[in-house]
Amino acid sequence: MGRLVALIILVIPGILAGYGIKMMRDMLFGILLHPYPNLSIQFLLGLVFFVAGLSFIAGFIFRRDQKRNKVQKRFIRKKNE
User: Fold this and answer.
1) Is the dihedral of CA 71, 10, 32, 39 positive or negative?
2) How far apart are the first and last CA of the chain?
3) Alpha-carbon separation of residue 4 from 15, 67, 72 (angstroms)
4) CB 3.0-4.6 Å disulfide test: which of 1, 6, 75, 80 passes with 71?
5) Cα–Cα distance for residue pair 38/2, rounded to 1 Å
6) Using the 8-state DSSP alphabet, how is residue 52 labeled?
7) How many other CB atoms are there within 10 angstroms of residue 51's CB atom?
8) Contacting residues for 8 by C-beta, under 8 A, at least 6 apart
9) Of 62, 64, 70, nearest to 2 (Cα)?
10) Is 34 exposed, middle or buried, given 0-12, 13-18 or 19+ CB atoms closer than 10 A?
11) Could you tell me the pTM of the whole model?
């Protein structure tokens, strides 16, 4: 059950990052999507979506590895922190 919840938690930011890539790609080809007024705003929002989704996934994986002591010594948290 825990693995299913973790998968669901990671799928939503993954979809968000994928949509961000699609928005940036469409801007490069000059395709304006419906809710955005111009291409530059579309690109900036696509970049924000991509960075937000990627950073959430990276943070999730890093925190999981940190709990299992599979990171470098400088990233291991001390007990009282």
Assistant:
1) negative
2) 29
3) 16, 19, 28
4) 75
5) 42
6) H
7) 12
8) none
9) 64
10) exposed
11) 0.84
**Which token pair is 76?**
């291991």
Alpha helices per DSSP H over 1-81: 2-28, 39-67
19-75 pLDDT tens trace: 999 999 999 999 999 999 999 999 999 999 999 999 999 999 999 899 888 888 888
Q: Is residue 45 part of a domain?
A: yes
Distance CA 31, CA 59 (A): 32
In a domain, 81, yes or no: no
Residue 49 and residue 27: Cα distance in Å, rounded?
14
User: Is residue 80, in this structure, part of any structural domain at all?
Assistant: no
- The amino acid at residue 59 is G
Q: What is the number of domains present in the chain? A: 1
Domain around 48: 2-75
